[in-house]
Design goal:
There is one protein chain. The chain is 46% helix and 21% strand. The protein has one domain: HUPs (Rossmann fold). Helix 3 crosses helix 5. The protein has 5 helices and 5 strands, in the order βαβαβαβααβ. The protein has 147 residues and is an alpha/beta fold. The protein is globular, with a radius of gyration of 15 Å. Strand 1, helix 1 and strand 2 form a beta-alpha-beta unit.
Length: 147
């Protein structure tokens, strides 16, 4: 049923829990897995890290690669075909574009379980992927947060 599964990650515990679920689903369906992390190199992305924009972007790319490698390492114990990729740009758009480009059958993504003001103020990549994507999405919710 699923030939290609995309597992986005941001390095959070929620993303790791979703990755474990995604790898289990991939094993059941003998699906290829793509693990993606987006380095948000857009105009607001470099506000998150100190220093000049170029060094902030390099740091974001490095961190994104570490997040991808951590999930790829989780898959090492399986016989799955796993590809890790770092994308750049607005995460919500880049993930959907990548998923469409490679012909993903399912996106397995985590959520922080934010609600109320936190959700409105911070937005949600997961929400965007669900609302604007045309690909089935499996959301692994780690439960509500007290942020």
């Amino acid at each position: 049923m699923f030939d290609t599964i995309l597992i986005p990650t941001d390095g959070s515990d929620h993303a790791e829990a979703a990755a474990e679920t995604g790898l289990e689903l991939a094993a059941v369906h003998d699906a290829a897995v793509h693990v993606a992390c987006v380095a948000d190199t857009g105009p607001l992305g470099d506000l998150r890290l100190p220093g000049d924009a170029a060094s902030a972007e390099d740091a974001m790319r490095t961190r994104a690669r570490e997040h991808v490698d951590a999930i790829v390492d989780l898959a090492d114990a399986t016989d799955l075909d796993v590809t890790g990729v770092v994308l750049e740009g607005p995460p919500e758009n880049e993930l959907l574009e990548y998923a469409r480009d490679i012909g993903v059958d399912l996106i397995v993504i985590g959520t922080r379980g934010r609600s109320g003001v936190h959700r409105m103020a911070l937005g949600s990549v997961t929400d965007h992927v669900i609302r604007f994507g045309d690909i089935p999405v499996f959301v692994a919710n780690s439960g509500p947060q007290t942020e």
